[in-house]
Design brief:
There is one protein chain. This protein is an alpha/beta fold. It folds into 2 domains: 99 residues, no CATH class; 83 residues, no CATH class. 42% of the residues lie in helices and 21% in strands. The chain contains 5 helices and 7 strands. Strands 2-3-1-4 form a 4-stranded mixed sheet, with helices on one face. The protein has a 3-stranded mixed sheet with strand order 5-6-7. Helix 5 links the parallel strand 5 and strand 6. Helix 1 runs parallel beside helix 3 and helix 4 runs parallel beside helix 5. About 3% of the residues have low confidence.
Length: 193
């Protein structure tokens, strides 16, 4: 959820910046990209302030440095944008839009959260600790391919955590299905009431 929130805030800033450019630059942008769509992939491991700081430089590059005929899935970007951007796609033909390319998946986010908690030093408690991961309104939670992929990655981490006397069980809960009997997507090791 944190990654999604950061990406949506970066998207808002990206779109707002275009409408706040001088009118000449707005017209120049619309002319230059009249038949091309620009997709900006912000880095998910950077704080929002770094993403915001890169946006003026991105527009400068698009308007003043990028050749008029450039297109492709991953257009080479200036070195100073590498810290905030993964890639920029310029799709042709396409609608004259600029937006984010958000390639993050729920599997990536779920595994990253699990790995962070399961591999950290032990919590300072004598009580048994269980980890609850949740997915919020994500249709991919229902996808069996997602489930098998994430489960295969998490199980070894849980086994290592148990061996260290750390977290003893992991649960994955679907907030979107919280009122159904399908809300619990994963429990390892299994649990019987």
């Amino acid at each position: 959820m944190k990654i999604m929130s950061t990406m949506m805030s970066a998207r808002d800033a990206l779109l707002a910046h275009l409408s706040n450019l001088p009118i000449e630059d707005q017209i120049s942008y619309q002319t230059k990209f009249a038949m091309r769509e620009v997709k900006v992939a912000f880095r998910r491991d950077r704080p929002l302030r770094e993403l915001h700081a890169a946006i003026p430089r991105l527009y400068h590059w698009l308007l003043r440095e990028l050749a008029d005929d450039v297109s492709g899935d991953a257009v080479p970007i200036p070195l100073e944008l590498n810290g905030a951007l993964e890639y920029v796609s310029i799709l042709s033909p396409g609608p004259p839009l600029i937006d984010i390319a958000f390639g993050g998946s729920i599997e990536d986010a779920t595994f990253a959260a699990a790995a962070r908690k399961l591999t950290r030093p032990r919590y300072a408690t004598a009580a048994p600790v269980e980890l609850l991961l949740y997915a919020h309104d994500q249709p991919l939670v229902l996808n069996e391919q997602w489930q098998s992929g994430i489960f295969g990655k998490i199980v070894p981490l849980v086994d290592e955590s148990i061996a260290r006397g750390h977290i003893r069980r992991v649960w994955i809960f679907s907030v979107a299905e919280r009122y159904t009997d399908r809300a619990i997507k994963f429990v390892y090791p299994s649990w019987k009431p």
